[in-house]
Amino acid sequence: MNGPVLRVAVVGHTNRGNFGHAMDTAFSRVPGTRIIAVADQDENGRNAALVRTGAGKAYADYALMLRSETPDIVVIGPRYCDSHEELIMEAIGRGVRGILCEKPLASTLDSIDRIQGACRSSGTTLLMAHRSRENPYVHWAKKMIREEIGPLRAMRGHGKSDHRVGMEDTVVLGLHVFDQMAFFAGAPDWCAGHVTVDGRDLVASDVRDGPEGIGKIAGNQVNAYFAFPDGVVGHWESSKGDRPGASWYGLELHGERGIIALRNLPDGEVYRYPHGHWMPDPDAGAWERVTIDEWDRDGDGVVRTSLQRTDESNRRHATALRDLLVNGGTRDDVSTIREAEVALEMTMGPVLSHLRGCRVAFPMDVRTNPLDMLHASSLG
């Protein structure tokens, strides 16, 4: 590429979310950029990151790295989202132009509000690694809705139903599905939710601290209903299953004239059914697997491994951020702070609905974790 090379610094935290899903190497194959430094408090972690990224310098203190290196772009790698606001604010304060952040952006909406305000004031561009909108299968599905199977009527999302089943599954993995729902149907207008523990409604004593800084969680089953514009509805379920794991995880798109199933993206498979029937009909046709070589295979035609698909997802996020900084404009293959806000509202809204016993309008009036209020009330 012509023009100046954008300088990239990477932040990780070994044993506290590490560098996320290989976020440290997101810019390794992006022309017009160069990874100049990495930061990690753990010596072994930062030395390993140096080798993976080819960066010239490594720091134990991320703030010192930002002061010393003055990068154009910062990658926020740790999965622990309770550190993200601090890291982002430090980067903005040092004049960083672009930020690529591992999901979730934050554990509360008020944190996202503060980040959004700071980015707006500084002109900083922040993109989320939601790993959905950059995927060509998602864009293929949207084209099929528009040209063949639509109009879209309903969306059905499901978590992995593994050891995280319920609220943790919804926070950690539901974000991906919620971002996909919003891509296909726009931001929802309202939601209703039901959260249970072994079949009974949750109570204050069920509330506990979730892992990886995601905040308070409760419940091993979450059911949610979302109302989108134009009469489209969305359903989300995280409940126990007989075969927990990736085979459960994904989103189904139900149109008038067909169904599309997106399973376990970016690693999984995509299927199409040629009719809008809820029940299988042999006379209507059979489920067909859809393949897109652009995603499934590398430049040499070799089938990508799971890790390689994650790397390709990260590369596309990084390339999009570079292009936005160089050329400006908007794109439909990225998740911005606004998309992060919508996805987190879709995570927290069903809980607030359950506690209030009524549907909840978006944007939500409660900007903290609703379970914080329930937990505080139990303490008197």
Characterise this structure.
The protein is of the alpha/beta class and 380 residues long. Helices cover 34% and strands 22% of the residues. The chain has 2 domains: 6-102, NAD(P)-binding Rossmann-like Domain (Rossmann fold); 136-305 and 342-374, Dihydrodipicolinate Reductase, domain 2, CATH 3.30.360.10. It has helices at 43-53, 62-69, 84-93, 109-122, 136-149, 167-172, 174-185, 293-296, 306-327, 337-356, 370-378; strands spanning 6-11, 33-39, 57-59, 73-76, 98-102, 125-129, 152-158, 190-197, 200-201, 208-209, 216-217, 221-227, 233-238, 250-255, 258-263, 270-273, 288-290, 360-361. Helix 3 (84-93) packs parallel to helix 4, helix 4 (109-122) packs antiparallel against helix 10 (337-356) and helix 7 (174-185) packs across helix 10 (337-356). The longest helix has 22 residues, at 306-327. It is globular, with a radius of gyration of 21 Å. 48% of the residues are buried. The model has no long low-confidence stretch (mean pLDDT 94).
